[in-house]
Amino acid sequence: MKLNELLATELNRLKDTKTFKYETALQSAQGGIVRVNGKEVVMLASNNYLGMSNHPVVVKAAIDGMKKYGYGLASVRFLTGTQTIHLELEKKISKFLKSEDTILFSSSYAANVAFFQAFTNEKLGFENYKDVIYSDQLNHASIIDGQRLCRAETTDRKIYQHGDVADLERYLEEDKDKEYRIRMIASDGVFSMEGDLAPIPRILELAEKYGAVVFVDDAHGIGVCGKSGKGTAEQFGVLGKVDFTVGTLGKAIGGAAGGFISGSKDFVEYMRQKGRPYIFSNSLPPPVVCGSLAAFDLLMKDKSIVQRLHENTAYFRKEIKNLGFKIIEGTHPIVPVMLGEASIAQEMSNALLKAGVYIKGLWYPIVPKGRARLRAQISASLKKKDIDRALEAFEKVGKKMKVI
Known about the structure:
By secondary structure, the chain is α/β, with parallel strands linked by helices.
């Protein structure tokens, strides 16, 4: 069979579960209200948690940055790709997260791939060694792909049940007498399909008990969780105690691109020498760096932005339940509205768009069969009237489809 025939066969097989469609391309900037198919609709499907993607201060900083520092650097960091603004951003993130140092990447996906590839595949002074990674069952694809780069002969990978510290401790207890070089617990801070938070304090306790280090990908936590948006560690009162924290500049912090890892100075210096996606990828463009700097400044100076996000989230969670919809409980702006079947999620997503709400459905293989849902994502950029408009559409469509 020829390649094109193979691809056509596979696409036909995927026609009922295909997630990626482009009939809903945006015709405006990202914001609380967006334009789709010539119509103004309420945005409930974006990672733009703080409304900074089109914030005038962030946009101006990006434009000014491009005028002063150029459109791009055409180089990797260790050649001609480091400007003073890159160093300034790394320093600002470190201060924000109370870490010793930070290293920038083109994305948090690249950061995760770099981390696991560099950390477990290098001898670090050991000729014969074995590492072990204990990874949450629902960790993000980038964590999974990063761990796939760990050589089987040097790294054991053990998957514990989602958020289940008892299952994690069972593995740690079983392995306590094994001579592992590095024991690592890896988890998302916030799980993007569920909107729930990892039990970070208990994970830290187990890490101390069993001599492990802790890695947390807080892409959906930084800018969102905690009183001042410093992430899940702040929310749990353990800021500065996680060994390695991955974050993104592509969600709450401006929403453009870029990721980072924060940790000790020695770790960051090591990653600059061994992190292949860092060494061999172009630097973040100056407009993104300057926009991100402005976004962090806004976040640190104006605590009302995070407060507004939390208030909007609490209001939507309360009212969507009052309408009769089933959601996954929590406090995060990710609010999964559970529908069960993929066909219902697809139909309801389309109907809500016609009713003035942009929201996306998730179904197998993104989530398990029978667990299809609409993933609502709340933003600080939404006004109460916008949320009420969305809730009215949910009620109308939900009743028509006999979901409520």
